[in-house]
Amino acid sequence: MAQAGQQTPKRTPKTIAGKMRPVIDATHQKALNDYQSALKLMQEGKFEKARDIFQVLVENAAPELQERSRVYLAVCARNAKPATRTFATPDEHYDYAISLLNTGFYEEARTQFEKILETHPEADYALYGLAILESMTGQVEGCLQHLGRAIQINPRNRIQARTDSDFQDMADDPRFTELLYPEMA
Question: Of the chain's two ends, which shows fewer C-beta atoms within 10 Å, N or C?
């Protein structure tokens, strides 16, 4: 404590354990900005672009960014490539396609139905699934074409389609009615 008439000594700021905050140079700032950009790309689902940035950071950034970038690089690699699925039977593949259809992943469901038809062109159930998908997405011509082919391969599909609520949007189309009830035409 200083007494009257005496000046108090100037104090220098203390650091914890002798560590001072490092001065960020331009290279380090760029690495931080790149890191933040890559995180944003990941959040947007752009894993390929984020992976490229993280790869550069793993090779060139400061050690603390390198380690974090390695972790995110692995996440990007896992998410950038769609998982390859294998199915024991076409029926199993069909069940997967239907699950996609039921959860609203229409384009992926379409891709799966088409893959079934590539290897099994007479798979009436895949044609029927495509007809349902096209009914649900308002593609009348495709629905009629695929359902017609499914019925041609397996006439029992006609009976099933008559009570299938997935075709409710097609009920007013006279071509659909003719397809399901040819005896009335």
Answer: N
Residue 85's Cβ-count burial label (10 Å; 0-12, 13-18, 19+) is exposed
Tokens of 185: 């035409």
Which of 80, 114, 149 finishes a domain? 80
Q: Is residue 177 part of a domain?
A: yes
Same domain, 62 and 95: no
Count of domains forming the chain: 2
User: 128-184: per-residue pLDDT in tens?
Assistant: 999 999 999 999 999 999 999 999 999 999 999 999 999 999 999 999 999 999 988
Task: Please give the C-alpha separations between residue 126 and each of 115, 138, 141, 157, in angstroms, as whole numbers.
Answer: 9, 18, 17, 11
Residue 143 lies in a domain: yes
What's CA 24's distance to the chain center, in Å?
Answer: 37
Distance between CA atoms of residues 87 and 93, nearest Å = 6
**Which are the contacts of 118, defined by CB distance < 8 A and separation ≥ 6?**
none
Opening angle at CA 144, ends 161 and 107, nearest 5:
90
DSSP H helices in 6-105? 26-43, 47-60, 63-80, 90-102
